[in-house]
Design goal:
The complex is a heterodimer of chains A (184) and B (95). Chain A has 184 residues and is mainly α. Chain A is built from nine helices and two strands; from the N terminus they run αααααβααβαα. In chain B, strands 1-2 form a two-stranded parallel ribbon. The radius of gyration of chain B is 14 Å and the shape is elongated. Classes of the chains: A mainly alpha (184), B mainly alpha (95).
Chain lengths: 184, 95
């Protein structure tokens, strides 16, 4: 009924299982409270916080409203700086362009930077289907990737994991120090 | 807060995480019952840490939601609307 991320159950159904996971809830409670406290501290440093926030909102809305113009402007800037810009009409086309670029080099492995757009279009899966392994370089994205998981937050993709879980994921997936004692 | 502080015989305990929603939110509770109950449980738990006998709120929906959780669990905490406390007298106390 409601639009959800590809292949995921609707929020109320997904939530039913998630709220029963006490580790997950403790992780999120700890992380969100830490982030909120830090945010409050940063906000308190600025006298014109609300005005800055409003200005940021207006810039964002203006940019989105005139995206046609700004995307072309971006292309011009990137080309001027020596880069190349590819245009794709949808997820499939975007994935195909990237896969073809990698295939043209003959490489089977690529590194990726943090990108929610490529998460949404399923780039890693599309590359895997072409026999190309993509490695996430962002720490949180790497945790998500090695955990065969999904990012749970746009800015903090592994916010649902605690240190112990991350250690276990790294040990299991990187094959390092499985029997090494904990050093804190 | 100032009104409550002025009530004779009332010892005010601040609610930790007061800015957090109780999770009722009108139709939210019907559309997302599990999240709503989980949020209410967190809220009830933080209210219990104060050791207070009464949980005061200014919104009847929040109080109904939290009251349901507290009552079902048999917690020693009673929800009361701000108006009930302010309207009470020594002759007719609310607690």
């Amino acid at each position: 009924m409601s639009g959800t991320f590809v292949g995921m159950p609707a929020f109320p159904e997904a939530a039913r299982e998630a709220v029963g996971n006490s580790t997950l809830r403790a992780n999120l409670r700890h992380a969100t409270h830490t982030i909120r406290d830090k945010r409050a501290k940063a906000v308190a440093e600025l006298a014109d916080w609300q005005q800055l926030r409003e200005a940021g909102k207006q810039i964002k809305n203006h940019t989105l409203r005139h995206l046609d113009r700004y995307l072309v402007q971006l292309e011009e800037s990137v080309v001027r700086a020596g880069g190349a810009v590819h245009w794709a009409a949808d997820a499939d086309e975007a994935n195909r362009i990237v896969a073809d670029l990698v295939k043209a080099t003959g490489e089977r492995e690529v590194v990726k930077v943090k990108s929610m757009a490529t998460q949404e279009i399923g780039l890693n899966e599309a590359l895997a289907a072409e026999g190309i392994s993509a490695y996430e370089t962002d720490l949180a994205e790497l945790i998500v990737q090695l955990g065969h998981d999904r990012p749970s937050h746009i800015l903090v993709p592994a916010i649902h994991r605690n240190r112990g879980e991350i250690r276990d994921i790294f040990r299991a997936e990187m094959g390092v120090g499985a029997a090494r004692p904990r050093t804190g | 807060m100032r009104l409550l502080e002025a009530v004779k015989g009332l010892e005010l305990r601040e609610l930790p995480g007061a800015e957090e929603c109780c999770g009722f939110g009108g139709t939210f509770a019907l559309k997302n019952p599990d999240v709503s109950a989980a949020m209410g449980t967190d809220k009830a738990d933080s209210a219990l840490t104060t050791g207070a006998e009464v949980l005061c709120g200014a919104d009847s929906s929040c109080l109904m939601h939290l009251g349901g959780i507290l009552r079902r669990r048999g917690d020693p905490l009673r929800p009361l609307h701000l108006a009930e406390i302010l309207a009470s007298t020594e002759a007719e106390p609310c607690v």
